[in-house]
Amino acid sequence: MTAARANESRPRRPEMTYAFWGAVALAVLLLAGTLVSAVWTSSVSPADPGNTTQVVLGQAVYAKHCAACHGAKLEGQPNWRDRLANGRMPAPPHDETGHTWHHPDSVLFGITKEGLVPGKYAPKGYQSDMPAFGGALRDEEIWAVLAYIKSTWPPRELAHQREVDRQSRTRR
């Protein structure tokens, strides 16, 4: 009997086979989890304009807390590019005619939560009428408002903002 035939006649131990395939499955799951985590943290926004539930919530929160200044249709205040008599700027539009889509999500979230903080989101010494909503809104509500705003943008502006946000995330 040859050595190859002798090996064929030996019974395999099932616990070794299970252990081997269990280890392989665990390794695959860990690798997949790492990849999913990397993709999530680098390219997915917490403000998802495709999430209908989030957009509906955001629309309601926007109507209650933001529309008085930024407009019911996100149109901003008249002459929003011209300084007011007090030196401050009117509230800009959040539709495609404004500049909201030029900023990454982290900046939009920060301005909404903390206000237009001079030295952080605005030039030093800058004064703004933009209040901080961190005490009035939960983070989930702020993200929902941003999702609602994004859901109104045409494809070109939405794609541009996604790229700006992606680049911002990769620099961190």
Description:
The protein has 172 residues and is mainly alpha-helical. It contains 7 helices and no strands. The chain has helices spanning 3-9, 14-43, 52-65, 67-70, 105-114, 139-151, 155-171. Helix 3 packs across helix 6 (139-151). The longest helix is centred in the N-terminal third of the chain and has 30 residues, at 14-43. The chain is elongated, with a radius of gyration of 26 Å. The model is unreliable at 32-42 (pLDDT under 50).
List keywords for this structure.
mainly alpha; 172 residues; single chain; 7 helices; 0% strand; elongated
Order of helices and strands: HHHHHHH
Going by helix content, strand content and strand pairing, the class is mainly alpha
Rounded to an integer in angstroms, the radius of gyration calculated over CA atoms is: 26 Å
Number of helices: 7
Binned, the helix content reads 55-70%
List the helices and strands and how they pair.
Elements: H1 3-9, H2 14-43, H3 52-65, H4 67-70, H5 105-114, H6 139-151, H7 155-171
Helix pairs in contact: 3-6, 5-6
